[in-house]
Design brief:
Elements: H1 2-10, E1 15-20, E2 23-27, H2 28-38, E3 43-47, E4 53-60, H3 64-73, E5 78-83, E6 96-102, E7 121-125, E8 134-140, E9 145-151, H4 156-167, E10 171-175, E11 192-196, H5 203-214, H6 228-245, E12 256-257, H7 268-273, H8 288-292, H9 298-309, H10 315-329, H11 332-342, H12 348-357, H13 362-373, H14 375-382, H15 388-396, H16 401-410, H17 431-458, E13 464-468, E14 472-478, E15 490-495, E16 498-502, H18 504-537, H19 539-565, E17 571-573, E18 578-583, H20 588-591, E19 599-603, E20 610-614, H21 621-637, E21 645-649, E22 653-657, H22 670-684, E23 689-694, H23 702-718, E24 725-729, H24 738-741, E25 745-755, E26 758-767, H25 775-782, H26 786-806, H27 832-841, H28 850-865
Parallel strand pairs: 1-5, 7-10, 9-12, 10-11, 17-21, 20-24, 20-25, 22-23, 23-24
Antiparallel strand pairs: 1-2, 2-4, 3-4, 5-6, 7-8, 8-9, 13-14, 14-16, 15-16, 18-19, 18-21, 25-26
């Protein structure tokens, strides 16, 4: 118990699993917590100093991983305290030490991780007093990915929250004194928080930890010079990994500094609204990721997710990916061969990580060797392709022939999961193992021969030679045959049906066989451990090959999707023109049974910078908005797009505000969330951004909502600092007047046809403004009772007559108009008499010529009759 208490003092915040024989035991308060969380029986053992029983529960050591994972998923951390010396050779109490600490951000067991999603740990260094710079670093222990960045300025905290929303880490490391309130995002709970001593985030300690881990004299080669906050976060993260894993982390030998401008920025809100990673109901299959994920390896699936959440902005890099996809798309035979070969590849990234952490089993190393066996075939398949990126990938694929040959020559073809189970090493790999194995195997036949000989000698036909862990080998004789037992038999145990005996010869045989078995397991474990360390020593080369394999998998998946679904290669450029011919929504067209109606789009920075889109609910406005954003996202990720033709500018950021959301837990209404998201767009968008907005202002009163929607659209169209390309869908038909008032604003609407009091949604976007909202017809389609529909029509008729009685065409103050009257009636309308009076007051009668007077009189007459 002193051993237990010493280990617990070192890890007070973790549940301590203490190895005792074949079980991990948990004591004291930890036992109460673990028993409740794991639904175990809580018992007690010898009394403590106070005379009360010590609470205790336990789990079998061979099944501990499952129990540990259950605790991790509930937010606990678990310290594993193992026996670090052989109980058979130990003098006195067996020595025990904590060999690793498992936390939400350091779980690496493949059986309990999502193979197609990352499992990240992040460290955050808040600004120093008076400063504005945040440092953040993140790593995936299961693959070795490691990166860091900084956020500076008045919006730094908001940018950091956006980054955390996209990364979705499972655990956050913070200095012990840090305030977590600036990290809270609306609607998304924070992951598990782990506090670390503040000095570990200090520049000196962090630099020392990083240079030791990366095995370099400085950090210049990683782009970290001049970024002390990023260094602080990265150093603290590395130190935490070393403290918890008690290993060299040979697979973590590089860190990347990420600039914000390195990728297309898509915040978590936009990812959610566009349904990039999952639908609004949380279904991964009904999302852009679900539609595009035709990857055949787990590494490729994770990389595809990363590409979709952080597309490129460098035009040359985008074109390289698109050229590679084009090459693969038009070479169906080669593509098929490459994808079939990739199916033989296991998760090399996580296999290497487990080898580096010392947790890889025999089957892991065999899987690694088989993955490397596929590499020569992939290089052959790439040989005939021309795209520069594919040539680079071919050169980066290293099958490490010496290492895979060593694995193949050492390990059995079908080894057990655990090395301690034996029969791990291939016959012929080691002479001493072969000798001991032969002795062990012959022991079974020797026992059979000895058993037959004793039956002949004693005349006892039912005599049996058996084995158990307590007595070893023994001879069992039934009661009815005890009179025939020879004098050299030594009685060992009486049982219900007879007696058990040993002989000097049987004891000598037992010592020989058991010694051979024990020595055989020891030698096999030593040889396997040597092989595992050799794999870990090649971690850097293996990771480079794994990255190339994952990249090839994603490119081939893009090509396969493009070929099967009639996608086209987009033309990316540095200009402003955004032109799409017959564009389609990649998810909707895949999931719907109806024929998808494609639509065109044209935006630019001058003549058509903001498009006001009107039309009824269910007409297809939201689909049109989302598909435009998704086409840009897909193109900059390197994918072909669902369109007959697409000419797209490289955008720096995509914003989407589509659909309703609220945050009841934080007391925020749908309208408040909508305004916060809209404020973020207006404050951070640039002229190179793409903005899609749907139904801004609908969460409040009609007058307030229309006023806000008008002001937002006007700001996006006239702000001299930033005029992003914008799609603005609305039910406020008054906003169509913006096209008359402002240059760069145009109207479009969704076509609808009426037939026998029915409406038909044509899903076609055409220029111009719509004349009606068709809300009552849509309500009838939704199933509202007929009495409600009839009453709604009566009320609508009354409202329209009342509005007509007040007369005139609807306008908004300050809006110029070029078109004639429309059916949709306005809200901010002055009586015609007031307008005529104002006009007359402005006329200088003495200055008019007769011709001007006649012209003016005609205009006033037309205006009065309008």
């Amino acid at each position: 118990m002193r051993q237990y208490q010493d280990a617990k003092r070192q890890h007070p915040d973790a549940l301590l699993f203490f190895r005792m024989g074949d079980f991990y035991e948990v004591f004291y308060e930890d036992a109460v917590v673990a028993a409740r969380a794991l639904e175990l029986t809580l018992t007690s053992r010898s009394k403590d100093a106070a005379g009360t029983g010590i609470p205790m529960c336990g789990v079998p050591f061979h099944a501990a991983d499952g129990y540990v994972t259950r605790l991790i998923r509930q937010g606990f951390s678990v310290a594993i305290c193992d026996q670090v010396e052989d109980p058979k050779t130990a003098k006195g109490l067996v020595k025990r030490e904590v060999t690793r600490v498992v936390t939400p951000g350091t779980l690496t067991d493949a059986a309990y991780l999502d193979a197609r999603a990352p499992a990240l740990l992040a460290a955050i260094l808040p600004p120093a007093r008076g400063g504005t710079t945040w440092g953040v670093a993140w790593a995936e222990l299961s693959t070795g990915e490691f990166a860091a960045t900084e956020f500076d300025g008045p919006d730094a905290a908001a940018l950091l929250r956006e980054e955390l929303g996209v990364l979705a880490p499972r655990e956050l490391l913070l200095p012990s004194e840090a305030d977590i309130e600036p990290l809270r995002t609306d609607g998304t709970p924070l992951p598990a928080i782990t506090r670390r001593d503040g000095w570990q985030f200090g520049l000196d300690a962090a630099q020392r930890a990083l240079t030791e881990q990366l095995q370099t004299s400085g950090l210049t080669g990683f782009g970290l010079d001049g970024h002390p906050c990023a260094i602080g976060a990265a150093g603290a993260l590395v130190q935490y990994l070393r403290d918890t894993q008690k290993a060299d982390l040979t697979h973590v030998r590089s860190v990347a500094y990420r600039e914000t401008r390195d990728g297309l920025i898509i915040d978590a809100t936009t990812l959610r609204h566009l349904e990039v990673l999952a639908s609004t109901e949380g279904d991964r299959q009904v999302s852009l990721l679900g539609v595009l994920d035709e990857t055949v390896t787990a590494m490729g699936a994770r990389l595809l997710r990363a590409w979709l959440t952080k597309p490129l902005v460098a035009l040359d890099a985008i074109r390289d990916r698109l050229d590679a996809v084009e090459d693969l798309a038009f070479r169906a035979v080669e593509r098929g061969q490459i994808r079939e070969t990739l199916r033989q590849v296991y998760d090399v990234q996580r296999l290497v990580a487990r080898a580096a952490l010392g947790t890889a089993g025999p089957r892991d190393l065999v899987a690694l060797a088989r993955s490397l066996d596929a590499v020569p075939g992939l290089r052959d398949g790439l040989a005939g392709l021309q795209a520069p990126l594919l040539a680079q990938l071919s050169a980066a694929l290293d099958d490490l022939p010496a290492l895979r040959g060593r694995i193949a020559a050492t390990l059995a073809d079908e080894p057990p999961m655990l090395a301690r189970d034996g029969d791990v090493i291939r016959d012929g790999a080691d002479p001493e193992i072969d000798r001991l194995r032969s002795l062990s195997r012959s022991g079974k036949s020797d026992i059979s021969a000895m058993e037959e000989a004793e039956r002949q000698r004693t005349g006892i036909a039912s005599l049996k030679i058996r084995f158990n862990r307590v007595f070893g080998y023994y001879i069992e004789v039934s009661k009815s045959n005890l009179h025939a037992v020879p004098a050299d038999y030594i009685r060992k145990q009486t049982i219900a049906g007879g007696e058990r005996f040993i002989t000097p010869g049987l004891k000598a045989f037992e010592e020989q066989v058991l010694h051979a078995d024990e020595h055989l397991i020891t030698l096999e474990l030593a040889l396997f451990e040597s092989l595992r360390k050799e794999v870990a020593a090649h971690a850097t080369a293996l990771q480079a090959t794994a990255t190339a394999l994952a990249t090839l998998d994603v490119l081939a998946a893009f090509a396969d999707v493009a070929a099967r679904r009639n996608y086209s290669k987009p033309h990316l450029h540095e200009g402003d023109d955004l032109s799409v011919v017959e564009g389609r929504h990649p998810v909707v067209e895949t999931m719907t049974r109806e024929a998808f109606v494609p639509n065109d789009l044209s935006l630019d920075g001058t003549t058509q910078q903001l498009l006001v889109i009107t039309g009824p609910n269910m007409g297809g406005k939201s689909t049109y908005l989302r598909q435009t954003a998704l086409l840009c996202l897909m193109a900059q990720a390197g994918s072909f797009v669902p369109a007959r033709q697409a000419k797209l500018p490289v955008v720096d950021r995509i914003y989407a505000r589509v659909g309703a959301a609220d945050n009841i837990a934080r007391g925020q209404s749908t309208f408040m969330v909508e305004m916060q998201e809209t404020a973020s767009i207006l404050n951070t968008a640039t002229s190179r951004s793409l903005v899609v907005l749907d139904e801004i202002g609908r969460g409040t009163s009609t007058f307030d909502g229309l006023s806000i929607a008008w002001a937002v659209a006007e700001h996006l169209a006239t702000n001299p600092k930033a005029r992003p390309k914008t799609l603005f869908a609305t039910h406020y038909h008054e906003l169509t007047d913006l096209a008359d008032a402002l240059p760069g604003v145009a109207n479009a609407h969704l076509l609808v046809r009426e037939w026998q009091d029915q409406i038909v949604f044509l899903r076609k976007v055409v220029p111009g403004r719509s004349d009606r909202s068709y809300g009552i017809q849509v309500a009838r389609l939704a199933g509202l009772p007929g009495s409600v529909i009839r009453r709604a029509r009566e009320i609508l008729s009354g409202l329209e007559q009342d509005e007509l009685a007040r007369g005139g065409r609807p306008t908004i103050a300050g809006a110029a108009t070029r078109e004639g009257p429309q059916q949709q009636l306005g809200l901010f309308q002055a009586p015609p008499d007031d307008r005529l009076r104002d006009r007359l007051r402005e006329i200088d009668v003495n200055a008019l010529t007769p011709l001007q007077a006649l012209t003016l009189l005609a205009e006033l007459k037309d205006e009065a009759e309008a």
